[in-house]
Design goal:
single chain, eight-stranded mixed beta sheet, 228 residues, 8 helices
Length: 228
């Protein structure tokens, strides 16, 4: 496992759990507004798998969950054995993914290794390549992942970080139609971290975010705003 960061405790990342957050290194996408650019574009200080598992064993009884995020965790060749070791400690797992690896996602679900899934929906299908920074991106794997998650029986959410320069009201309507019937959808306000892959991005105002949220409710039962 290539682990580029550890937040030792969080009550926000894993709904209903006191958890830690593990940041894996590397991503297949290059979203220009990504706030974890150092985990995507170059190596940061890495933690060994043994260090992480030792920490989890020591905090057992205080922590009851682990959030695995990135980068893109499903890029890791040994993500499944690593998740098995966390499960053996007795901790629940939340997986953050961009949905690019539906076969591995399905395997993880089938093995019972995940208790909560959060998938990023980057934009409407028509603007996925632009938003992810990948020319001629094949949208099919992301579409498969949406359906896998919706039918998994695992608790889940979809979420979109929106920026003024890439996301419009029409995009939000198209996203909602795409993931129609989803249980939870979050519209996340962009925040400038100072470590973006690109530049020139800004947040929508509160009124626009509220309009985005309202527009998704035709297809989604629960839609909320995060980050304002």
């Amino acid at each position: 496992m290539k682990i580029g960061g550890l937040q030792k405790m969080t009550m926000l990342d894993f709904p209903g759990r006191i958890a830690c957050t593990i940041f894996t290194y590397g991503c297949n996408l290059r979203c220009p507004f990504c706030h974890n650019a150092t985990l995507v574009t170059h190596k940061t200080e890495l933690f060994s798998e043994d260090e992480i598992l030792s920490y989890l064993n020591k905090r057992k009884g205080i922590l009851d969950g682990v959030c695995i995020t990135g980068g893109e965790p499903l890029l890791q060749s040994d993500i499944i054995p690593f998740m098995k070791k966390i499960k053996e400690i007795g901790l629940a797992i939340k997986l953050d993914t961009n949905g690019a690896y539906p076969d591995k996602l399905q395997e993880i679900i089938d093995l019972g290794l995940v208790d909560y899934i959060a998938m990023d929906i980057k934009n409407s299908k028509e603007k996925y390549a632009l938003t992810t920074g990948i020319d001629a991106l094949d949208i099919a794997p992301f579409e498969r992942s949406v359906e896998i998650i919706k039918n998994s029986g695992v608790e889940y959410e979809f979420r979109t970080t929106v920026v003024r320069e890439l996301h419009t009201l029409d995009d939000m309507k198209k996203i909602a139609e795409w993931i129609s019937g989803a249980k939870k959808y979050y519209i996340q306000c962009f925040a400038e971290s100072g470590e973006l892959i690109g530049e020139g991005f800004s947040a929508h105002d509160k009124n626009t975010l509220e309009a985005f949220c309202q527009a998704t409710l035709e297809h989604i039962s629960s839609s909320e705003i995060r980050g304002i």
